[in-house]
Write a sequence for this structure.
């Protein structure tokens, strides 16, 4: 096992993939810094929606429709992660409060599952902040198996990896907490009830009562 994360040169990635990752995380050197501060305001906020739409809207549309381009990006673990950031994360900013937020979820989940299966979270292919978004993607699934993969496989392996510095473990424990919250919701309802209105699904009285008693941040992400 490598002792430090692999920092592939930006030239090893398609230019657009490198641009997506640079926007989301900062430079490769920043991502590998043991003291890297996770960009929660960008990753889980909405203030950058318009900027993201202007910068990446056309790219996300093209990438979602072009399997050959996605395949080129997926030639490396970091390029595969860039597909996830573009189609799972940026797509949510671009299409907030519409059903299109979820348009590419299954495609991204297939990639995230493959990254976990291939050990990209523990072999040095990706830095800890990058690995966190393998988890975020899996948390978006409405399949309990993906949540079990996230909580029972990805995180235990990642948190015990010698590649993860103590400061990064603290950030990752926060991600794990939210992964468990998502897991519990899907385990209870077999879906995310807060998505029902956007997806044209009827909510049960029990789901509505449950939602009314909670105001999770990720529930608010689906609202205008």
């Amino acid at each position: 096992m490598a002792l430090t994360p692999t920092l592939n040169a930006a030239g090893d990635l398609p230019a657009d993939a490198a641009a997506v990752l640079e926007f989301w995380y900062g430079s490769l050197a920043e991502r590998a810094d043991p003291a890297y501060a996770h960009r929660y305001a960008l990753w889980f906020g909405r203030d950058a929606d318009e900027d993201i739409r202007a910068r990446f809207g056309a790219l996300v549309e093209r990438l979602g429709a072009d399997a050959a381009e996605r395949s080129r990006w997926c030639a490396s673990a970091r390029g595969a992660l860039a597909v996830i950031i573009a189609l799972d994360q940026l797509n949510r900013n671009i299409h907030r409060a519409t059903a299109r937020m979820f348009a590419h979820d299954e495609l991204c989940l297939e990639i995230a599952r493959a990254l976990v299966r291939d050990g990209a979270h523990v072999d040095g292919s990706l830095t800890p902040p990058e690995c966190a978004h393998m988890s975020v993607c899996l948390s978006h699934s409405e399949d309990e198996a993906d949540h079990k993969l996230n909580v029972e496989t990805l995180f235990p392996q990642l948190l015990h990896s010698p590649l993860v510095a103590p400061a990064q473990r603290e950030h990752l424990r926060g991600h794990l907490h939210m992964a468990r919250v998502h897991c519990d919701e899907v385990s209870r309802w077999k879906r995310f009830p807060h998505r029902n209105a956007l997806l044209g699904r009827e909510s049960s009285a029990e789901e509505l009562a449950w939602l009314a008693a909670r105001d999770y941040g990720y529930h608010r992400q689906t609202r205008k």
Q: What stands out?
A: The first helix runs from residue 15 to 25. Confidence is low (pLDDT under 50) at residues 1-11. The chain has twelve helices and no strands. The CA atoms of residues 176 and 198 lie 27 Å apart.
